[in-house]
Amino acid sequence: MTAPDALAELGSTGAIGPLRCGASLNDIAATLGPPWDIGRVSGRRRWPHLFSYGDVELCVCRCRLITSICVQTWRDTISLPDPHQPGTVVSHPGQLTHREIISTLEATGCRWQSVTLNQPPGQTALRTDPTGTAFTFRTEGAPEPLLESAGIWMSTHRCVPPALDAPDDGFGTATAAGCPSRSE
User: Can you give the three-state secondary structure of 132-174, one letter per residue?
Assistant: First the structure.
């Protein structure tokens, strides 16, 4: 699978392989191997926390549900998890163009529309239907807009943190001070 194909899958289904919002990090780790620990979203709280499989970044709630997926595509290569070899990533050529992404989305039957509201100078974006995946492009410094990132997120979910006596899952303490009981 190419990087544009994986991104079209994200745009049309809201997932890249088993990675999808609402999935359990523990279930994903059982399938793909342990993720890379990127760090805290906030300097004061352990949760939410960022993990990744290559350039696929996951924001994870203390209840271990994935609440957002963001694929960083601004690098020269894009590393995506290899579903056939847990714990490994496959590098793909980066510098994906607006035309290339639109062509791949349309080839898979994924509907999209341009996002014009609140776009800063030097940026353009599109959003897919029905998943709402956002594709953001840099319009400066290249002859054609280049994809910077693609992402999807949950607007809200009911957080049910692990029980205090639950065995350590290796991802850190779920009851860090200051964590809200509801994640939005």
Answer: CCEEEEECCCCCCCEEEEEEEECCCECCCCCCCCCCCCCCCCC
Whole-angstrom distance, CA of residue 109 vs CA of residue 126: 15
* Long-range contacts of 164-173, Cβ-Cβ distance < 8 Å, separation of 24 or more: 169/26, 169/64, 170/34, 171/25, 171/26, 171/49, 171/51, 171/60, 171/64, 172/46, 172/47, 172/49, 173/46
Cβ atoms of 135 and 126 closer than 8 Å: yes
Closest among 74, 72, 103, 104 to 89, alpha carbons compared:
72
Among 76, 74, 80, CA closest to 52: 80
Share the mean pLDDT of the chain.
87
User: Using CA atoms, how far apart are residues 99 and 77, in angstroms rounded to an integer?
Assistant: 18
Q: How far apart are CA 163 and CA 160, in angstroms?
A: 9
Q: What pTM does this model have?
A: 0.85
Most trustworthy range by pLDDT among 83-87, 123-127, 173-177: 123-127
How far is 157 from 178, CA to CA, in rounded Å? Answer: 18
pLDDT greater than 70 at residue 182: no
For residue 156, report the phi and psi dihedrals to the nearest 5 degrees. -165, 155
**126: confidence class by pLDDT, cuts 50, 70, 90:** very high
